[in-house]
Structures are given as C-alpha cells and as structure tokens.
User: What shape does this take?
Amino acid sequence: PMHSLRLSAIRELIETEQRYVDDLSIVTNQFIRPLNNARALNEQEIGQLFINWFDLIALNSNLLNALHAQ
Assistant: This one.
C-alpha cells in the first residue's frame, strides 16, 4: 500500500514534469522562434520577454532525465 502510493506519486511527478517541458517547448516553437525568425523583436527584446526561458528548459529537461533514470 505505502509502496504503491509512493510509486504513484513518483509517476505523477514525472508526468507533470514531462508536460511542463513539453509546454516550454511549445512556447519556444510557436512564439519565440517565429518572433525571432520574423525579426519582429530583436534578441534583447525576446530575452526580456522570455527571461531565463532556455535555462528553464535545460534545468527541467535535466530534472526529467534524472527522474527517468531513477
């Protein structure tokens, strides 16, 4: 019982983290890249709008990989 609750919580954490990483990627592909490609905003403006965005992706992707490794 306790073991299955723990496994369920871990699965939920992994699934939630996966959805978050997927959502971060969607924003990158649907907003950041098109804004950059269209030169609608310069890199500094994009950086101001999406502060630490790529750091978030890297951090959460690493966390997700670590969770999968366990």
